[in-house]
Design goal:
Strand order of the largest sheet: 2-1-3-4-5
Mean pLDDT: 95
Largest sheet: 5 strands, mixed
Distance between the termini: 52 Å
Structural class: alpha/beta
Shape: globular
Order of helices and strands: HEEHEHEEH
Length: 149
């Protein structure tokens, strides 16, 4: 039997969150957290809305997932993110001991890998799922932002 709930399916859900951020004028990054093929948390950037530099999509979703699970560790969870996490989010993901991270587009300037930040040794990483879609949304956002200024 084919499982319809694969990485592409869940990354599409993360892209829906990124679209929600885009509609609010936020940098369009979206996240979903999954355990046993079930979405337990969602998030998107809210830094402008909340006037809070820490209100990244990943931080929103870590808090929501931990609340859902009733504990601070996200073992057996996968986080789907439309953009490679920054060093702050990677640090939080390290401490959450999340089992797997899947991200779409890489961030060659502010991503955790560029900055030499390590994830938890047991965290598996998959990249490039729906990369083109996520990159296109981000590029569109920044082009529009530049044209408004």
């Amino acid at each position: 039997m084919i499982n319809p709930y694969d990485d592409t399916y869940f990354m599409r859900k993360a892209l829906e969150e990124a679209e929600a951020a885009y509609e609010k004028g936020e940098i369009p990054v979206g996240v979903v957290v999954v355990i046993n093929d079930r979405i337990i948390a969602k998030g998107h950037n809210l830094t402008e809305t909340l006037n809070d530099v820490t209100a990244h999509a990943e931080m929103q979703a870590i808090t929501a997932a931990a609340s859902f699970l009733g504990g601070k560790y996200l073992k057996d969870c996968t986080m789907y993110i439309t953009l490679e996490p920054c060093q702050m989010c990677a640090g939080a993901l390290y401490w959450s001991q999340i089992s797997k991270i899947v991200f779409a587009a890489e961030d060659s300037t502010r991503g955790y890998r560029k900055n030499g930040v390590q994830l938890h040794p047991k965290t598996k990483v998959t990249t490039g799922i729906l990369e083109e879609e996520a990159s296109t949304l981000l590029k569109r956002f920044f082009i529009e932002k530049r044209n408004l200024n």
